């Protein structure tokens, strides 16, 4: 079967091969992938909408929880209010006495003015000597029959009810209901704190989708559309289990439209019941744009595929003839005829290939000679590399001999009681060893400052009281990585050119600090300084290819900083004649900190 297929394919013309290959390898897979991508975009848009809605619901829960915490806090305060206890449990013999008591207790009037989250506070009691007003109401048989009153009297926890503003029947609002039992008098009462409806609705006003807050009975207590407040979820065709305690995502038809519903319940602390945040959005509205883009994309792809199929018929004919001609020329070269020349016009790939073919034939003999010469050069290079390696291995003897000799001198000085000379020899050996160990790997600032300190101690031994130094290194800079041997040459330059001729009180300071995410290094001396003309000349030589010998170190540091961190960085020099010179640089740490 396979042999038959291969034979049939080989017998086909190139044009037909291109067409069939295009159909099975390009057109059909592209159409399949296009369909899959369209479905993916649709699902991705839906998933993004669900995720966004879930985030919005969480945000609403947080805002609602913050708002509900205000009446809870107020109820906790009133629960322990002795003034309220005395007011409700006093037997009033005259109306004047009762009016005076009302006038003294004004907390219920002040609380709505202090807290925007609430609109009304009232207390239901059994003291028959009190006359009803908007804040203190006697319990009647009708009130005792209300579900919210019975629930509060039978349970000490806070309840949340969508109830009338008073017993005479006003607009229903979400209210906190809590039983207050006065222990000293053994009389109960019910505290009702009504929430501000406008503030509740404002929590939902900026939501993208239709969002509402419902109680456990299914009553809508707040909504993005205020007209829905007071309705039930059933009236809005939202049949949801309000006793589900966790977040749930439901897919169903709402008013005949395929929709997704996100429900999440909030039960405040010490509460008997809670509230549910419900967000509804139409699936069709979410995926409509994704489907539209998908269909437009599919139409464009199909149009392009058909156009490409038409062009294949034309291009394949021209291509086949030219390839056959070039194939005949290649066969001649394969037989060893390097005088073959291809005559194909055109500037397309085949025309370029023809010209490259001619160039290849002309160059093949040169290439053979170049390969031969290259092999000879490689052989010589390998020999040279081996010789260099042997010399490098031999050169390692000299540093070890030098270190051993310095150590012998140090020990001899130490045994003879010359501790200062022994210490200087030790520092010199340490400095030379550090310099010989320097490579391309970055070192910590702490290691760099060890070299600087060793160098300064040696110079201190040389200049004695003529030279004083101070190293100021902030602790957070010690682990910063930087190119090796980049501070010591600045110190050496400052001593040689700045402090060399100073008779007394020579001072050199090295300060390392962090400025945001940049390492700032300053080398300051109080030496001879330089004129502005001289300073400009020195700065000009830092970027030069060659310079005087006494500026090689500065130029090396300046160019290494620029090569490592970019052209925005490098050495900066300020100087005042007779007062001293400051050399400084800043480099980004970029997270390069030794752990």
UniProtKB/TrEMBL annotation:
Give the SUPFAM superfamilies listed for this entry: ATPase domain of HSP90 chaperone/DNA topoisomerase II/histidine kinase, HAMP domain-like
Q: What is its EC number?
A: 2.7.13.3
Signal peptide limits: none
Q: Which PROSITE patterns match?
A: HAMP
HAMP domain segment(s): 317-369
Keywords for this entry?
Cell membrane, Kinase, Membrane, Phosphoprotein, Transferase, Transmembrane, Transmembrane helix, Two-component regulatory system
Protein localization? Cell membrane
Question: Which CDD domains does the UniProt record give?
Answer: HAMP
Q: What is its main location?
A: membrane
Q: Name one Pfam family in it.
A: HAMP
Per its record, the protein catalyses:
ATP + protein L-histidine = ADP + protein N-phospho-L-histidine
Recorded superkingdom: Bacteria
Q: What is this protein called?
A: histidine kinase
